[in-house]
Amino acid sequence: VMTKKYVDGVPLARQEKIWARQGVELSRATMANWVIRCAQSWLKPLYKHMKRQLLKQSVIHADETVVQVLKEDNKPAASESRMWLYASGEYSSQHIRIFEYQPDRSGKRPESFLKGFSGCLITDGYAGYNQVQKVTHCGCWAHARRKFDEALQTLPKEKRQDSLAATGECYCTRLFQLEQPLMDLTPEERYTKRLELEKPVLDALLAWANEASAKTAPKSALGKALHYLREQWPYLKRFLEDGRLEISNNRAERSIKPFVMGRKNWLFANTEGGAQSSAIVYSLIETARENNLDPYRYLVHVFSKAPGLAVTDKNWAAKLLPENIPPECCITKK
């Protein structure tokens, strides 16, 4: 049931009909209760372990997206809540993905979740992340490039090629092109090469942006792209300081995409408890996939072993983390 919903995107209402065609009377309410009970009783202890491990990493990517919860205290059914995503960096010792449900987009949410973390935080520039203290804030060049592309799309096709928006997008694209051959280098080697190859591009881009801003309407699409670039500049250039840092927040966007795709099918969560349980299940499934584990086999392993281990071992949850799972749960490709 969990795999069908959270991996394959099949809502419980549709699963109910599938079971019925096979002669099994299994209501969506029963399945929802199963998911909540199993997530809270057996997956949540693993979730807590994973969160503690994540906060010990040197780099974390963060992102968030909308989720609708129908029955939520003091909120109308049509209001928007948020699903937050926190992902370990490229060179982290553990590959971890943590989803967290919260009723709003307030900056106090990541501030609370990341309490105790003191590394580099890579985000998309949303001001709410500025509430997170004692971290090194890093920007996202994919978002900077996207702003210029949006400005480009507002122009007639015949005027795009020689436009300022095209120039800005070209600068950003050049950074990604230079970054590609550096993917397989060590952080130290990447740091050196970035200063040699990419810093001159950054210097030229900033000089161009300052000049272009003087002759661009601030409220135009290009004006907004230039404002984003210049406002985010202290964070956008931070990747030059550490070879472990990626130049974009695409890692978080890729990690949150399974939730976004699933949401297109199941549309909303019925209760706050259901949303919280979904966050836990998504965290275990996506972390399993990051560790080359088959989600279905991994969940079967956890639910098979957890009840017995919990009786005899206080540290049972740590033994069932994706990094500690035996080879029979592994798959060749993600």
Number of helices: 14
Largest sheet: 5 strands, mixed
Mean pLDDT: 93
Order of strands in the sheet with the most strands?
Answer: 4-3-1-5-6
β-sheet strand percentage: 5-15%
Please tally the β strands and state the result. Answer: 7
What is the CA–CA distance across the termini?
20 Å
Helix content: 40-55%
Q: Can you tell me the residue ranges where pLDDT is under 50 for at least 5 consecutive residues?
A: none
Shape: globular
- Rg, rounded, reads 22 Å
The SSE string, one letter per element, is HHHEEEEHEEHHHHHHHEHHH
The chain-level structural class is alpha/beta
Topology:
Elements: H1 2-6, H2 12-21, H3 28-54, E1 59-67, E2 69-71, E3 81-88, E4 97-102, H4 108-113, E5 120-122, E6 136-138, H5 141-153, H6 157-160, H7 164-179, H8 187-197, H9 199-213, H10 221-236, H11 250-266, E7 269-271, H12 272-290, H13 295-312, H14 316-319
Parallel strand pairs: 1-5, 2-7, 5-6
Antiparallel strand pairs: 1-3, 3-4
Helix pairs in contact: 2-3, 3-12, 5-7, 5-10, 7-9, 9-10, 12-13
Summarize, please:
The protein contains 14 helices and seven strands. The protein is α/β, with parallel strands linked by helices and 334 residues long.
